[in-house]
């Protein structure tokens, strides 16, 4: 297995008017090809910041990080990843298919290629039939699925997801989680997934990175022993609960809830 | 959709305005009527005679609505549109300068906004001048623009249009700077992850998101353009256009002529704003806005 993301002693300090804020310190981490890695921790632990560093949306202040052996900037320019934000961030003046086509237009795909890719990704996220709808005509869960389709459209091998289901209710979230696992199995992508839900992290991941705040750092890395095939009721098995317990222990060890 | 039953309130307001207008005309013209009667030695007038007379003066302080309608009928419907007595003729002269100036002004406003949004140096250096430009009274510089341009051989439509431009570019700059800056950081981040060029970000994000601001600005700008064109016609004196009509009317105390020119100007402005609104509605529908 080759490392898609490799961070060594990575640190990031924001300079603010009130002084420096250490968002990340001494992060050593590898994300290997085909892994589903969840980042879990309370607010301020730097999980989103780390994802943004991978995406070249934030610049680290110390240490090093490579994506497919390149700098984050080179990886971004070579369109190595698709990014799914907390909000769907669909353009309201574009139909769903035009939203999915946005990266394709920017990257210069032909009309025919765009159509083929739209059809394929819309099917992957189960939105076939909604191509001509505008975002406001879709529910929140469907909008977020459309934004996932947009991130998948240009076939980047790495998918970065920043709490994509955080704003959705439990039922929709369960449904999208199992769909995401199917998509993960079908596309063989590498996924980095930020969440603050323990069950979500355990259910989805092949590897769970537990982080704690002030300063943001990695406290535990847990390899999941769950099988690749995961029905929703796997969440009641002892194996699942044991991993969830270890995540909870990791969060507690970070003293994250003392303040 | 219009809410049901909105016709009656609108008619009531219109009727109230009409009644107030008549009352105002009587009150304002009463004194003058008494003075005129005295001057001509007319005596024995009952108050109903005076009342009737206040609504039919040649040069009333405030013409009554029916006098205005009669004047508009005479100068619009009963004249050939090419006649110098036709308000359609004068209205078209003003309108053509307005439209040309509005087109210049909108283009200039958008262009300046693009420069300001994409370059901090232009933002800092241009914005103070743009704001300062609007603090100069247009009445003061309009004659200078006309005279200076005349001296270099430019006369007629263009100088007037430039005054319209001067007034109409401002709301467009201000609105479009705001509009071009309205994308949320998440939308800009998204474009960044695609490694989109500045031009692509502009075409696919900043321009469409700024369009609602453009229409709001254009509604203000088009009305300002008309004012600019009329002001541009004032220094010409004795020329053509609604501004010249206003000026000629005030020279000779032809209040009915002034008011009818004003009425045509108001109708033009209203019509232009409505047209911008209709275009806006069509564009917004095309852009998939949720029906209100």
Automatic annotation (TrEMBL), chain A:
CDD domains in alphabetical order: ABC_NrtD_SsuB_transporters
SUPFAM superfamilies: P-loop containing nucleoside triphosphate hydrolases
This protein's record includes keyword Nucleus: no
ATP-binding in keyword set: yes
Keywords: ATP-binding, Nucleotide-binding, Transport
One Pfam family of this chain: ABC_tran
Similarity comment text for this entry: Belongs to the ABC transporter superfamily.
Gene3D superfamilies: P-loop containing nucleotide triphosphate hydrolases
One Gene Ontology MF term: ATP binding
InterPro entries membership: AAA+_ATPase (IPR003593), ABC_transporter-like_ATP-bd (IPR003439), ABC_transporter-like_CS (IPR017871), ABC_transporter_ATP-bind (IPR050166), P-loop_NTPase (IPR027417)
UniProt name for this protein: ABC transporter ATP-binding protein
Domain (ABC transporter): residue spans on this chain: 5-238
Signal peptide coordinates: none
UniProtKB/TrEMBL annotation, chain B:
UniProt-listed InterPro entries: MetI-like, MetI-like_sf
GO-annotated cellular components: plasma membrane
Subcellular location(s) per record: Cell membrane
Pfam families: BPD_transp_1
Keyword field: Cell membrane, Membrane, Transmembrane, Transmembrane helix, Transport
Gene Ontology biological process terms from the UniProt entry: transmembrane transport
Region forming the signal peptide: none
Residue intervals of the ABC transmembrane type-1 domain: 91-280
Membrane spanning residue stretches: 7-30, 92-117, 129-149, 213-236, 256-279
Lipid bilayer topology: Multi-pass membrane protein
Family in the record: Belongs to the binding-protein-dependent transport system permease family.
Record PANTHER family: ABC TRANSPORTER PERMEASE PROTEIN HI_0355-RELATED (PTHR30151:SF20), ALKANE SULFONATE ABC TRANSPORTER-RELATED, MEMBRANE SUBUNIT (PTHR30151)
UniProt protein name: ABC transporter permease
């Amino acid at each position: 297995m080759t490392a898609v993301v490799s961070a060594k002693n990575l640190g990031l300090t924001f300079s603010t008017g009130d002084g420096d804020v250490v968002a990340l310190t001494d992060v050593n981490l590898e994300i290997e090809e085909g892994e589903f890695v969840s980042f879990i921790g309370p607010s301020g632990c730097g999980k989103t910041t780390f994802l943004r560093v991978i995406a070249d949306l934030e610049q680290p202040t110390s240490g090093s990080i490579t994506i497919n052996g390149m700098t984050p900037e080179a990886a971004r320019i070579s369109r190595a990843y698709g990014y799914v934000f907390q909000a769907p961030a669909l353009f309201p003046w574009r139909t769903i298919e035009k939203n999915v086509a946005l990266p394709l237009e920017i990257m210069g795909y032909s009309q025919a290629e765009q159509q083929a890719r739209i059809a394929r990704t819309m099917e992957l996220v189960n939105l076939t039939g909604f191509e001509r709808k505008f975002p406001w005509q879709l529910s929140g869960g469907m909008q977020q699925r459309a934004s996932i389709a947009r991130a998948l459209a240009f076939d980047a091998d790495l998918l970065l997801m920043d709490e994509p289901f955080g704003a959705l209710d439990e039922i929709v979230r369960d449904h999208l989680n199992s769909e995401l696992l199917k998509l993960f199995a079908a596309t063989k992508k590498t996924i980095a997934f930020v969440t603050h839900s323990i069950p979500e992290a355990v259910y989805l991941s092949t590897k769970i990175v537990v982080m704690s705040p002030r300063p943001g750092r990695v406290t535990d890395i847990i390899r999941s022993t769950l099988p690749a095939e995961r029905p929703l009721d796997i969440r009641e098995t002892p194996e699942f609960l044991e991993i969830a317990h270890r995540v909870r222990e990791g969060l507690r060890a970070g003293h994250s809830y003392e303040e | 959709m219009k809410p049901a039953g909105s016709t009656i309130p609108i008619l009531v307001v219109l009727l109230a305005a009409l009644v107030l207008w008549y009352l105002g005309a009587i009150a304002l013209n009463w004194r003058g009527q008494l003075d005129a009667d005295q001057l001509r030695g007319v005596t024995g007038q009952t108050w109903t005679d005076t009342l009737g007379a206040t609504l039919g003066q040649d040069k009333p302080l405030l013409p009554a609505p029916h006098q205005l309608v009669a004047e508009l009928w005479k100068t619009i419907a009963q004249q050939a549109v090419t006649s110098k007595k036709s308000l359609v003729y004068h209205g078209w002269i003003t309108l053509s300068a307005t439209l040309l100036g509005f087109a210049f002004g909108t283009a200039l406003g958008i262009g300046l906004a693009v420069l300001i949004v994409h370059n901090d140096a232009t933002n800092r250096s241009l914005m103070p001048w743009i704001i300062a430009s609007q603090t100069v009274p247009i009445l003061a510089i309009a004659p200078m623009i006309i005279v200076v341009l005349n001296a270099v051989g430019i006369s007629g439509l263009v100088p007037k249009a430039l005054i319209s431009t001067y007034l109409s570019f401002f709301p467009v700059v201000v609105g479009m700077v705001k509009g071009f800056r309205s994308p949320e950081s998440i939308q800009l981040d998204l474009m960044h992850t695609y490694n989109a060029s500045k031009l692509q970000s502009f075409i696919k994000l900043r321009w469409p998101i700024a369009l609602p601001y453009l229409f709001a600005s254009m509604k203000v700008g088009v009305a300002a353009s008309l004012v600019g064109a009329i002001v541009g016609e004032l220094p010409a004196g004795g020329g053509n256009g609604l501004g010249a009509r206003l000026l000629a009317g005030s020279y000779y105390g032809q209040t009915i002529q002034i008011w009818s020119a004003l009425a045509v100007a108001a109708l033009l402005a209203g019509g232009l704003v409505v047209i911008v609104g209709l275009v806006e509605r069509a564009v917004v529908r095309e852009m998939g806005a949720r029906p209100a």
